[in-house]
Each structure stands twice: as C-alpha cells, then as structure tokens.
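Quick one: structure tokens for this chain, please?
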Amino acid sequence: MSTREATLDDIPAIVALTREIHGKTHYRDAPLDAEKYMHTLRMMINSRQHLVLVADGEEQGDVGGFFLGIAQPHFAVKGKFATDLMFYASPEHPGVGILMLRRFLTWARSRSDVSLILLGISNDLADEKGLGRFYERQGLRRVGGLYMEVFGEGENDIVGEAS
C-alpha cells in the first residue's frame, strides 16, 4: 500500500471513511457536517498551508486511511506550528499510519516557516500507548492531554449529506 497527496477526486472516499469511523468515536455526539467537511477538504487540498494524505486501498478509488495536516501561526511562539487535524489508518491496512505520519513529519520539518510540531491523540480508536511511543521514537515528547464537551450543533452549522 502506498501513500500520496490527496486530489479533489479523493474527497468522496475521505468523507465516506470519516462517516464510517465517526460513529465509533467519542465525536459521535457532534453531528458530522458533510457539506462543510467537503468544502474544507477542497480548500485544504488546494492550500500550501495544508497537507492532505491518503493511503490507497486495494481497488481504484478505495482509501485505506487519510491524514489532514496544517502549518499555521502559533498564537504566542515565533513561526508556525504544524499539527494534525484528523488522522485515520484502517486496521485492514497495517503500516499505512506510520507511512503517513513519517510523510507529515518530513513535510513539517522541511518547511522553513515551521518551528514547532504538535501531534495529538484525540479519539478512542487509536492505540494511545503505541501511537505515543511511535511519536516519541520520532523525537516528539508528551506535553499534555485533551478534554472534551459536546453541547448543541452550533447556530450556523448546516448538517448535509455527502454527494
């Protein structure tokens, strides 16, 4: 299995895979807005500030995983920081998660405007200990945790279906 930068043609597969896993995570109580998500993916794929990776599946158009990364200004530190917005590797495709993570780290470290990399584990599908050890082997260190509350859908959100 290989990884590559996503194209606009990959958006339906990324959305479909996200829908599949969304209900299995603690984010299930926050409705997925497919229309908003597709718009965001289009913007990210066309932006130099983002890195969208996919792991090709067995068949044409099949995606076995994806990684959404961003490099953006930090609110208090000089330069930008690079982080993951969403990351998923299907258990049916072992090893693709490591390939995508390494590719993201290479992208982030090669940017002269990035001075900090932050990666999180924010869902209950990941093997937190194993992924944490992988991050540490890549030179990162643990610096905190994540806490969450879901309340309402937001006044301006439109919950749509993927087309």
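The CA atoms of residues 2 and 100 lie 9 Å apart.
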